[in-house]
Amino acid sequence: MLNKLNQIPNLSVLVVGDVMFDAYLFGKIERMSPEAPVPVVSLTRKDERIGGAGNVACNAISLGAKAHIATAIGDDDAGEKMLSLLMTRGIGIKACVIEKGRPTTIKTRIISDEEHMLRVDNETTASILTSTTDTIIEKCASILEEESIDVIIIEDYDKGVMGDKLFSFLKEESLNRNIPLAVDPKLKNFDLYKGVDLFKPNLKELREGIPTSITTEEHISLEKAVDTLHENLNPKISLTTLGPDGMWIHSPLNDVNHHHTKGIERNIVDVSGAGDTVITVAALMLAACATPQEIARAANIAGGLVCEQSGVEEISMELLIKELE
Questions:
Q1: For 159-202, where are the alpha helices, taking DSSP H only?
Q2: Which residues pair with 73 in a beta bridge?
Q3: Which residues form the catalytic set?
Q4: CATH number of the domain enclosing 189
């Protein structure tokens, strides 16, 4: 396991998908509003972090890998700030395309004493323009030609970047160049991602994507749902995250049949961004030729560790290795 983790700093990843800002307003509730039956939060501090596909790239950098990101951002102040922050983190932005008139996604959370009170989203979920898709494809082709990319990660938040044309290009390139392709899906494009190397839905996404009734208490229903997933999409490996119950990994090609990696008891503070961390670690472990069980174990620990911190946080190699020793 540790020898696979130690290979990660030698790897390079191309992340494709929806970027966003995860903004936070922290404060304390000291009274109720006289205007309406709602609490008044007295602001104590603000924070703003790179989220979505950007968080995946940041996690890769935090683990010592190299990262390039392909996405569409708005021609607004948030988009300009996003590019600046990505560059500051050392993430390649050659395939970040500005689309005129499109807002950069911002999710603003109001937190009081570590309790999530409210979230306000400023975004569009409309598909990006065909011309934007074409430019992203052109830039990705250049990166794949000029850089040594070890794994491609699609981080789809249903915000409009991913579509048939972009996925078809990425799948063809991954096959032609023998680069593993990992996908973290949402509902809109769930059925699009056929034949990928690693498919990572959470339990909610699996329920909606099949659709079926699943209970983690009765593993039979989960097994049936995952079997249906493999019949429909045929991934080489599926990794279904189950929250505190751990992960369910299935890979008949690797003789791994419905393996349950149990959850580790944690002091859960905030689950924001945990899925980004899980797909990052899983994809990098896949690129390092880890077994499905090793992928699940490392990703399970990484996802749990970031949930112990408030807000969208990145995993560090030092912390991950410490937990695995």
A1: 164-177
A2: 98
A3: 276
A4: 3.40.1190.20
Tokens in use for 313?
């946080």
For the chain, give the mean pLDDT.
91
Name the residue range of residue 148's domain: 2-28+41-324
Could you tell me which of 57, 110, 59, 100 has the C-alpha nearest to residue 79? 100
124 — pLDDT class (breaks 50, 70, 90): very high
How far apart (Å, rounded) are the C-alpha atoms in residues 116 and 110? Answer: 6
Whether 35 is covered by a domain: the verdict is no
72 domain-assigned: yes
Q: If 0-12 CB within 10 Å is exposed, 13-18 middle and 19+ buried, where does residue 88 land?
A: exposed
Give burial (CB, 10 Å; 0-12/13-18/19+) of 266. Answer: middle
pLDDT band at 311 (very low <50, low <70, confident <90, very high): low
78: Cβ–Cβ under 8 A, 6 or more apart, which residues?
Answer: 21, 103, 104, 106
The yes-or-no verdict on residue 21 having pLDDT over 80 is: yes
Neighbours of 66 (CB within 10 A): 20
Amino acid at 232: N
What pTM, to 2 d.p., does this model score? 0.92
Inside any domain, residue 34: no
For residue 309, is pLDDT > 90? no
Confidence at 310, pLDDT banded by 50, 70, 90: low
Residue type, 55: N
